[in-house]
Amino acid sequence: MASQEIEALSSALARLPGLGPRSARRAVLWLVKNREGALPALLEALDAVSQQLVECEICGNVDTADPCGICSDPKRDARQLCVVEDVSDVWALDRARLFRGRYHVLGGRLSALDGVGPDDLNIASLMDRVAGGAVDEVVLAMNATLEGQTTAHYLAERLESHPLRITQLAHGLPVGGELDYLDEGTLAQALRARRPVE
Amino acid sequence: MASQEIEALSSALARLPGLGPRSARRAVLWLVKNREGALPALLEALDAVSQQLVECEICGNVDTADPCGICSDPKRDARQLCVVEDVSDVWALDRARLFRGRYHVLGGRLSALDGVGPDDLNIASLMDRVAGGAVDEVVLAMNATLEGQTTAHYLAERLESHPLRITQLAHGLPVGGELDYLDEGTLAQALRARRPVE
Which residue of A has its CA nearest to B45? Predict the structure, then answer.
C-alpha cells in the first residue's frame, strides 16, 4: 500500500523496544503528517547522536564525547568507582542522582553458558584504574542475577589485594514491595540482612 | 546525566505516538547499544522518507512519489473515487484491500468550531476530477462523527448535479461488536438500516 521507503521506515521503527508493527505504522503516519516539524527534528537528533556516539576510553560508557560527561565532570568524586554490567545501568543509577562518583562499565557479565570469560569484559582496564591508587571504594553494582553475582564475587576476589573498600548494593525489599508478592529469594536476603530499627 | 544530544534524541522520540518519556529513553538506550546496526538503518530509512515525502497533486495522499503509488497504479479503477478526510484514512482503507479504485484526500473535515470551511479543504480539486466525467462513483468515506457526516452531506449536495453514483460507508454493528456494549447511536443506525436475511 505505501511506498518501499515508508515500509522500510515502519520496519526500522518497529524494531525499537516498546513499538510493534501497528504502533510503528502509527508513528510513521504521525511523522508523515508532521513532516514539516517533528520529522526533521527527529532526523537531526538521530543524526547528531549517530555521528557523535563514542565509547569512553576510561569507563566504557557510551556518550557523545570521549572522555564521557561523567568521567570529565570535575564535580564527581574520582575516589569512588561504581562497577556496572552495562551502559544502561549507568543511566539507571545516575537517574537516582545519589551516587556522585564515577563508573566503570564491564560490557557484560561472566557467563559460562554464553562463553563469556574475564577477558571478554573490561576488567583489565578496571584493574589499571584501581592500581593507580586513586580509588578508595569500589561499589560492585551488578544485577541481582546468578551471573551478575558470580561476576561480583570474581571481581571482589581480584580486587582484594588492593587497599580499598569493596561494597555491593544492598539486597532486600524493593520500595513499595509487598511481602505477599515477593519471591522467597528476596525475602531470605531481606531477613538475613535485617537491621536494628533506628 | 546523558549528553545534550542524547537528551534531544530522547525528547524527539518521546513525541512519537505510543512512546512516552520512559519508553523513549529505553529506545535511545537500545539504539545506543545497537549503534552499529539498527541506528544507521533507522537513520537511513528516516532520511529517505524525509527527503522524498511529497503530497500527490492529484489526490492529496502523501507518498514518496508524485503522482502517488495509488494514482499511478494502472490496475486501479479510475472510475471509482473514495473521498476521505485524511491520509491516515487512505492507509486504513487500503489495508483492507477491498477497494480497488482511487482516493481523494480532503485534508480535514468541515468544522464550524475550528473555523474550517469548504475553501480550506481539497474540494475544488475533487470537483475538477469529477467534472472531467471520468468518474462513475464517489464513495464518501468520512468518519462517523458529527463533523465527518456534515462534510459528507455537504459533498453529496455539491456532487448532486453530476451524473454519478454517490455512496457512503454503511453504518451498523462493527465486526465482533456485542449489542450490550454498543452505544445507542450505533444500535439505532443498525436497526434503521436492517436488511432482509439472505
Answer: A9
- Do residues B23 and A13 make contact, with C-beta atoms less than 8 angstroms apart? no
Q: Tell me the nearest-neighbour CA distance from A71 into chain B, angstroms.
A: 12
Q: Which residue range(s) make up the domain with A19?
A: 4-52
Phi, psi of B104 (to 5 degrees): -140, 120
Interface with B, mutate which of A25, A28, A30, A50 (most B CBs under 10 A): A50
From B41, which residue of chain A is nearest by alpha-carbon distance? A12
Helix A21-33 × helix A38-52 angle, to 10°: 110
Position B192 in a domain: no
CB contacts of B47 in chain A (<8 Å) are 43, 47
Per-residue pLDDT of chain B (198 residues; tens, 9 = 90+): 567 888 899 999 999 998 988 899 889 989 988 888 899 999 999 999 888 888 899 999 988 888 999 999 999 999 999 999 998 889 888 888 888 999 999 999 999 999 999 999 999 999 999 998 889 999 999 998 999 999 999 999 999 999 999 998 888 888 888 888 888 888 888 888 888 787
Beta strands in B13-162 (DSSP E): 54-55, 62-63, 77-84, 101-105, 137-140
For residue A186, being part of any structural domain is answered with no
Q: Could you give the CA distance from residue B92 to residue B78 in angstroms, rounded to a whole number?
A: 19
B25, A91: Cβ pair inside 8 Å? yes
Cβ atoms within 10 A of the Cβ of A32, count?
22
Contacts with B63 from chain A: Cβ below 8 Å: 2-3, 6
Contact list, B16 vs chain A (CB under 8 Å): 13, 19, 27, 30-31, 42
Residue of A nearest to B46 (CA): A9
ipTM above 0.90, yes or no: no
Pairing of strands B137-140, B77-84: parallel
DSSP A197: -
C-alpha cell at A46: 538521530
Same domain, B43 and B97: no
CATH number assigned to the domain comprising residue A89: 3.40.1360.10
